[in-house]
Amino acid sequence: MLACVLMVGGCALGAKPAPATFDLAAPRSVPGSGSTSIQFAVTEPTVVGALNSERIVVRPAPAAITYLSGAQWSDRAPKLVQARLIDTFRNSGRVRSVGMPGGAVVNDIGLVTDLQDFHIDAQQGIAVVTIAVRIVSDQSGRVIASRTFTASTPISGSRAEDMVAALNASFDKVATDLVVWTLDRI
């Protein structure tokens, strides 16, 4: 009872409300046909420090970084992107086994990713997502193929929900293209 009173009292004394928490959605379907028996892992993307957070990045100018006030992701951006890329591969219905590195499965290849852009461009009013990917042989360590995928989506309003919806749309395009390209090469 005292804990409840203290918590309510803290709110009454001007404590900040918790930020709205948003999730990233994986595309539900992916075009293409055929399947692969190759087992692989998707690495957690490498990122610059500003993206290695739950906070939603806003770029008010090319060299400036801020964060969307009162909003956050449900996990660190690289972890969220990794999980949703894995979900997208699974949603394709074309893979035998895909997961995170370090599981009990012996992988044939690794998908090494770099999250280069995952932000709101305030000057242009767009949400930008860029992911570079390398398909790497787990046996030899050789890069089999590499490519960078990028998408931008106009933001339809000024609310956090509008910005997150645009980031989701950009991610949807990048994830779909990345999965189709990868599955065509393995």
UniProtKB/TrEMBL annotation:
Alphabetical list of Pfam families matching this protein: ABC_trans_aux (PF03886)
Signal peptide positions (record): 1-20
Keywords: Signal
Highest taxon of source: Bacteria
Residues in ABC-type transport auxiliary lipoprotein component domain copies: 25-178
Protein name: Cholesterol transport system auxiliary component
Source organism of the structure: Tepidamorphus gemmatus
